[in-house]
Predict the structure.
Amino acid sequence: MKTPPLSAVTVSLVLPALNEADNIAATLDDCVQTLRRVAQDYEIIVVDNDSTDDTADIVRQFQSENARVHLIHQPIRGYGSAIWTGLKAAQLEIVGWRDSDTQYRTADIVPMLKALDTYDVVVGHRVQRRDPSHRLLFALLWNVLNRVLFGFVVHDMDCGCKIFRREVVDTLDIKAAGAVFNVEFLVQAKRAGFRVGEVSISHLPRHAGENTGGSLRVILRAMREVLRLRWRLLREPRPIRNARPTRN
């Protein structure tokens, strides 16, 4: 399926957010500036993951000035659950997500959108990842583990910037609510026959907010969840592409 010229695409971008009051305004402004420039129409869906700071209030201020910004409050925390909630609410033809911190540049989705001429799912690849050394080591081990378990892995499976056709959301039923969401999303997309590719993107240091993805507790929980995912997928049938009707 040929992707329309960038000037004709419509894009729904999901931002999962947990206590990102120091980052969310800059992230929203970055998203609006890029999407206004490259898309015929766009929407930005912020899923507030039960933040205890002013994240939601800042998003509401943006809403009052831009009707294309939407806020969903999710009382149950979970990175994957927040993303999936936003993806299911998306209304436009190209769908994706990026993390709400300022470690990504929304402009990097432009080459990712172009790559949809070749792929159904495009994953960002942080070539020069600006994270602490312990997180880089965990990412390396994580990729090795997933290659062993699933026989398929992109270079940067957990990259918080992905773009894909809405057909992918309409086909899949992702159950992972936490850190394993990225793994299940990509593995299930591959099992359903979608073409998965990568595009190199920028990655910036985190200057504000707290990133909990590298904590020992989160790492150990992710290890348990990915093993459970492997066992579950052995018993489940492959997703059937176009199993659900495309939304109007």
